[in-house]
Amino acid sequence: KYDFSTRIRQVNPSATQQIADKAKELSQRGEDVISLGVGEPDFDTPVEVKECAKEALDDGFVHYTSTKGIRELREEIVGKLEEENQIDAGIEDVLVTPGGKFSIFLVCQAFLDENDEAILFDPAWVSYDECVKLAGAEPVWSETNANLKPDLEDFKDKINDSTSLVILNSPCNPTGQVYDESTIKAVTEIARENNCLVMSDEIYEKIIYEKEHYSPGSEYDNVITVNGFSKTFSMTGWRLGYTVAEEEVIDEMKKIQQHSVSCPTSFAQKGAVCAYKNKEIESKLEGMVLKYRKRRDTLLKGLKSLDIECTKPEGGFYAFPYIGTDSFKVSEELLDKCHIGVTPGKAFGDGGKGYIRISYAQSEERIKEAIERIRKTELEYI
Ligand code: PLP
User: Fold this and answer.
1) In the chain, which segments carry CATH 3.90.1150.10?
2) How is domain 6-44+282-376 classified at the CATH fold level?
3) Is the N-terminal amide bond of 123 cis, ω within 30° of 0?
4) What ipTM, to 2 d.p.?
5) 312 in helix, strand or coil?
6) Does the C-beta of 203 come closer than 6 Å to ligand 1?
7) How does pLDDT run along the chain (382 residues), one tens digit per residue?
8) Residue of minimum CA distance from atom 3 in ligand 1
9) Bridge partner residues of 225 (DSSP)
10) Of the four, 239, 245, 294, 310, which is 20 to 30 A from 222 by CA?
11) Which of 45, 108, 127 to mutate to test the pocket of ligand 1 (most atoms within 8 A of CB)?
């Protein structure tokens, strides 16, 4: 009946959403579903952040802001970048967007043309692929090794004159892997030798365990950094993220923001100012990361007791166990027979097809219960 555009027809619906919808449907029917599928913190937004946003509402801060985001927030972001990431940026080098995802979308729109290629490390977060396609370009998958880290030899093979963008994501969704500084540097240098930009998605930088986070934007000028408030401050519904790049780049991206969403939400930005400004929140974050780490350990122990192989996740709140068979069948079976929602690894690229992604943004009790349900159920695929 409708003559949809070629562009929209080649975009796939989010696979992470599909399974979450099915799990929600089961819950609504009264089933006790353990949701380990969605990439969303189960913690609440810090109360201080909420208070600032409420104050802004009460003060009537309810109108459009400047397209790039309020100055106060960009100043806080600049301070944060300098202190925590050693990234030297000015306030005109920052674009606040409605979510980190929109930053990624804008970077793709700004730099990708038809026949351009963008390299992703396989497996990669579901939206990169689609954002690249929405810009008319071709996603090219570069392999990762047995530890789910970039295979530099394969990367060198894949990068070519048509490559315009390389997407790095550490800590990584879906694998939970944190790439070493040397790996990130090598990728960035190879990209630079090929006149290629790197988009470094650092949205999980604060949720990290044994490793240190490294921002390539601190040393290389071919890097665009993307970050946001969703994961660190449990603010997914606030829709706030940002891009850091040279002013010339930001101003090009700004044009699309201007003509699509105008600006990020006014009072949400005031809340985000507080997230970076209020130092008490820092200690709360430490407590949150400790909890995630404990949950990860509980999950790893449980998986081991079930003889399921899993490379130890070093950041984010995802584990990516190897199940060896069709990840869609396994995920469906876990939902149908155990009422556990996970995400099929294949949704993140061919490299993930023998894996499932388990989000441990869930209480320890529920994680333990999930393991017991699997133990007690006769499963065909695990
Ligand atoms: N990047 C990665 C790797 C993510 O997993 C997500 C959210 O799931 C985002 C970016 C975007 O987050 P948001 O748009 O909520 O800032």
Assistant:
1) 6-44+282-376
2) Aspartate Aminotransferase, domain 1 (3.90.1150)
3) yes
4) 0.99
5) coil
6) yes
7) 999 998 888 888 776 677 778 888 999 999 999 999 888 899 999 999 999 999 999 999 999 999 999 999 999 999 999 999 999 999 999 999 999 999 999 999 999 999 999 999 999 999 999 999 999 999 999 999 999 999 999 999 999 999 999 999 999 999 999 999 999 999 999 999 999 999 999 999 999 999 999 999 999 999 999 999 999 999 999 999 999 999 999 999 999 999 999 999 999 999 999 999 998 998 899 999 999 999 999 999 999 999 999 999 999 999 999 999 999 999 999 999 999 999 999 999 999 999 999 999 999 999 999 999 999 999 988 8
8) 173
9) 200, 244
10) 239
11) 127
What distance in Å separates the CA atoms of residue 6 and residue 367, rounded to the nearest whole number?
Answer: 42
CA–CA dist 124, 122 (Å, integer): 5
Q: What is the pLDDT of residues 325-368, one digit of tens each?
A: 999 999 999 999 999 999 999 999 999 999 999 999 999 999 99
Residue type (1 letter), 74: R
Residue 99 identity:
G
Task: Report the alpha-carbon angle 126-130-131, nearest 5.
Answer: 110
CA neighbor of 326 nearest in space, from 365, 373, 380: 380
CATH architecture classification, 47-279: 3-Layer(aba) Sandwich (3.40)
Closest CA to 69 of 281, 282, 271: 271
374 CA distance to ligand 1 middle (Å): 29
* Entry pTM: 0.96
- Alpha helices by DSSP H, the chain: 6-9, 15-28, 47-58, 71-85, 100-111, 126-134, 152-158, 181-193, 247-260, 266-277, 280-305, 327-338, 364-376
User: Cα-Cα-Cα-Cα dihedral of 186, 188, 192, 197, to 10°?
Assistant: 160
Q: Which of 3, 38, 114 is nearest to 359 (CA)?
A: 38
Residue limits of CATH 3.40.640.10 in the chain:
47-279
Q: Ligand 1 centroid to 90 CA: how many Å? A: 24
